[in-house]
Amino acid sequence: MNSKMGENRICELFNIDFPLIQAGMIWCSGWELASAVSNAGGLGIIGSGSMYPEILEQQIISCKAATTKPFAVNLPMLYPDSDKHIATIIKHKVPIVFTSAGNPSIWTSHLKSHGIIVVHVVSSLKFALKAEEAGVDAVVAEGFEAGGHNGRDETTTMCLVPMVAKKINIPLIAAGGIATGRAMLAAMNLGADAVQVGSRFVASVEASAHNNFKQAVISAQEGDTLLTLKEITPVRLLKNEFSESIRKAYESCASKDELKTLLGRGRAKKGMFEGDLANGELEIGQVSALLDTILPAAEIIAEILSEFKEALKEQNTTKFQF
Ligand code: NDP
Question: In the chain, which ranges are continuous DSSP H helix?
Answer without folding.
Answer: 9-14, 31-39, 53-66, 82-91, 108-113, 125-133, 157-167, 181-189, 199-202, 211-219, 241-251, 256-263, 267-268, 297-315
